[in-house]
Amino acid sequence: MPGRTNYLPFEQFGPSSRYWLDAFNPDSTLHRFLPCGPVSGVEFPEDRSSYCQTQEETRQLLLESLQSSGLPYSEQQLSAVEKLKDPRCLAIVTGQQPGALGGPLYTFAKILSAIVYAERLEKVWNSPVVPILWNGGDDHDLEEIDNLAWQGPEGDILFHKFGLGSHIPQPAWRVPLSEEYRSAVFKFIEDIHPETEYRKSTLDFLAGLWKESDSWAVFFDRFWLSVFKDTPLLVVRPWETVLRKAARTVMAREIDDPAAYLSDIETDSANLESAGYKPHIHKSRGVCSFFYVDDDGRKSVASVAEGIRIEGQDSVRNIEDLRGEFNQHPDRSSPNALLRPIVQDAILPTAATVLGPTEMAYHAQLGGMYDRHKIPRPYLLPRFSLTLVGNREARGVADLGLDWTNLNRDENELAKSIFHSERIEQSLAVIEEIRLTANSGLEKLIANMGEDGKGLAEPLTSQFKRVEKTISQVEDLIRREESRRDDHGRIRLHKLRNSVFPGGNLQERVFGLAPFLCRFGFDWIGEILEDARDWDGTHAIIYQIGRP
Asked: The pTM is what?
């Protein structure tokens, strides 16, 4: 099932924040704060390579984690584990919270980017490189990962919630799967997606993963490893005890000076503002860069005058006591979203990190944290911005005389511009001309009859009223037919726009991969992997699955 790639400028389609656009502009002042840009600008990272080759113990802990994970790695993925044993091996890394059935489509785009860029840079650098997905299962914002969106038969966007918000604030890796969750989401899909061969194969695929997974995060890992089974993709689970051990040095530095990271952020924020950028991160005084994890969940930690206060605990802990506990029980510590990249790049041999627009913005405020931990920063690569369409959408755009960028407009305004009909205006003008001619003709007839024809005036008027009624019926017929066509066109436009810009949002932020697997099957995954080798990420991509 070959595909077709459409390239569109970000100014017209896709992410359009200043941080995102400036990442592609080599003359932008953003590059003072971020080592970022398209893959074509990445040079071999000598500093990261040297740093990673000195971290032999950390690499062994990483390998231990991968080899003991129990995940069903394919042959290519097992080969990537072997490749990581080479101290020269680097990684292209991307991370994401474990969203519903794999999460939003941008998760697919991030992983696809990491795979393609790892392959490309390995050839350019003539040095081993592997793609790695960092499972963000530490996150406890369960509401954020609880939504599954699907387009309904009438074109509206329908949502399914699993009910994760009812859990105490546990990290996502602790959220169990249940048969109730599975049966509810399968019913949701079966109720709104047509019964097809691809729907059945997709549900069978999901059911198999569900059976093999005991938690939300494990399902996420198995899902993406299976989707990309023909690639060297690896998955890292940072909550595993062996990797918590690998993060001890970073965590100890944060515990010893819990106020330092806020100072780092404030300094970088001030520098960004002076360069005309709006900082995205604003943290309250005293908030620490890490959480405390116990059986009751993931708890915030604050630095107070007397020591360290943990959410839900009455007593204040001293720093030495907490450091000792974390050292003895490393699984009780968990980095927040700002510390996570530092931990990631302390553990992984990261050459470059694939990011989305929001991540690009907050990474601009992390320079001081990298410096304080003496960890060389990896290059930051903007992910592919990807919209998936089929032949149906391509035909719809062509039939309505549109291009893809038009679909980002307000739907009502777009409909008015499409369905404004000169034909009906011309037809109604002809009918009005007929009506005026008939009325004028009646007046002339009555005038011609004179006094002798006064008795015919009333029956003539009555007969001409029938003519008027016929004219009105013709007018109604034309208006109804045009309205029918207009309604049909509006329904088609509504479905088309919600396929490409669901609810007026970028598709990659609303739909996940599962609706496209139900519609197109799995064969196109290999095709997009092949086609993506030519992408450089500098344009928004509309990928048409299948050709007419």
From this structure: 0.89
Q: Give the C-alpha separation, 490 to 484, whole Å.
A: 10
Find, among 335, 234, 264, the residue nearest to 293 by Cα: 335
Length of the chain: 548
CB 545 within 8 A of CB 524: yes
pLDDT at site 1: 43
pLDDT digits (tens, 9 = 90+) for 120-152: 999 999 999 999 999 999 988 888 888 899 999
Contact 299, 310 (CB under 8 A): yes
Instruction: Give the lowest-confidence range in 35-44, 239-248, 425-434.
Output: 425-434
C-alpha to C-alpha distance for 378 and 129, rounded to whole angstroms: 14
Q: Whole-angstrom Cα distance, residue 400 to residue 345?
A: 49
What is the greatest pairwise CA distance in the chain?
A: 121
Pairing of strands 287-294, 333-335: antiparallel
Beta-bridge mates of residue 132 = 93, 234
Element (H, E) at 435: helix 422-449
Q: Which amino acid type is present at position 505?
A: N
Decide the pairing of beta strands 386-389 and 287-294.
unpaired
Specify the pLDDT at position 370. Answer: 97
Segment 492-517 mean pLDDT: 95
**Alpha-carbon distances, residue 333 vs 50, 251, 326, 345, 407 (angstroms):** 28, 8, 6, 17, 46
Cα separation, 65 vs 59, in Å, equals 10
Which has the closest alpha carbon to 241: 346, 164, 357, 326?
326
